[in-house]
Design goal:
The structure is a single chain. It contains seven helices and 15 strands. The chain is an alpha/beta fold. It has one domain: Metallo-dependent phosphatases (Purple Acid Phosphatase, chain A, domain 2). Strand 14 and strand 15 form a beta hairpin. The two termini are about 25 Å apart. The relative contact order is 0.18.
Length: about 300
């Protein structure tokens, strides 16, 4: 798709254009990797990533379904402060399986992750990553933000989950993390029910109602949406709309670059593409992915 230009209100995006802009320092937001380290390495080579100067923003789901989950974690961890990662549902699944509070799924491809000699070090590092990141006029989260949450509110709620993940009682949190209820936010929620809603919105949500009730079964694109539900980012007057939100998680949706949102999960693990957005000029870069045998649905 070289040379394709996307034009949106107040935004000009160059998609893999044949001409090059060299920046003194660049920040690349990258979609769901899911253990596809080879594709990530090719994409970073393509953009000319310099680990001594540039930064990566990773939208989560570093692991699972692809062939190199262990190697991907080692690589991202090795970048230190040059990489900012938010947690995705597959990352949390790995942590919960490792802690003994969930069973591996048939299609999980953690590979040697759980038996690696540096397993504990890598899992501790992963458990200390963010739920949400805000910097340079952008916000980043794996899945989405509920319409009642401003960026400031969402960031404070993300910190609550991060404290639970990093605290001495994190195993109790994993034991209570899963579940679809409550399906919406209330300010008076407390305890693990409160944390569960935050986790579900930030790592699982694609659709919600205008008043913020979440739906978790829809995995395809924008056709045949359940009655009463819309993509979370299309809820009118959502409180986060004035800050561009970068997210992944929705591979069937594909690449979306708008003034208010950037969707970067372009289905690398499904044999499509791995995508990056350079924040400084909103240029999009992509590389083809080989995919993983047996990954036939989202």
């Amino acid at each position: 798709m070289a040379g394709v230009v996307f034009i949106f209100p107040a935004l000009f995006t160059i998609h893999d254009s044949p001409f090059t802009i060299r920046l003194d320092m660049a920040t690349y937001a990258i979609g769901d990797i899911q253990g596809c380290l080879e594709a990530l390495e090719k994409l970073l080579e393509h953009v000319g990533f310099d680990r001594a100067r540039d930064r990566l923003w990773l939208v989560g789901d570093l692991v699972n379904r692809g062939p190199q989950s262990l190697e991907t974690l080692r690589f991202v961890k090795s970048l230190g402060a040059r990489a900012v990662t938010v947690l995705g549902n597959h990352d949390l699944h790995l942590l919960t399986v490792a802690a003994g509070y969930a069973r591996p799924h048939r299609r999980d491809t953690f590979g040697g992750m759980l038996d690696a000699p540096d397993r504990d070090e890598l899992l501790a590092w992963l458990r200390h990553q963010k739920m949400m990141h805000v910097e340079h006029g952008y916000a980043m989260v794996h899945a989405g933000l509920l319409p009642q949450w401003s960026i400031e509110t969402a960031l404070a709620l993300a910190r609550e989950v991060e404290e639970a993940l990093r605290g001495a009682r994190y195993r109790e949190f994993f034991a209570a993390m899963y579940g679809d209820e409550p399906d919406r936010w209330r300010d008076d929620l407390d305890g693990y029910a409160r944390l569960r809603v935050i986790v579900n919105a930030m790592t699982r949500m694609r659709l919600c109602t205008v008043d913020g009730a979440m739906e978790f079964t829809h995995q395809t694109a924008l056709e045949n949406l359940p009655a009463g539900f819309v993509p979370w980012f299309d809820v009118p007057q959502r409180l986060s709309r004035n800050t561009p939100v970068i997210f992944g998680h929705w591979a069937a949706l594909g690449l979306v670059v708008r003034e208010d949102v950037v969707a970067l999960d372009t289905g690398c693990v499904w044999g499509r593409k791995l995508s990056a957005l350079r924040l400084e000029d909103r240029r999009v870069f992509q590389r083809d992915c080989a995919g993983t045998p047996g990954t036939t649905h989202w």
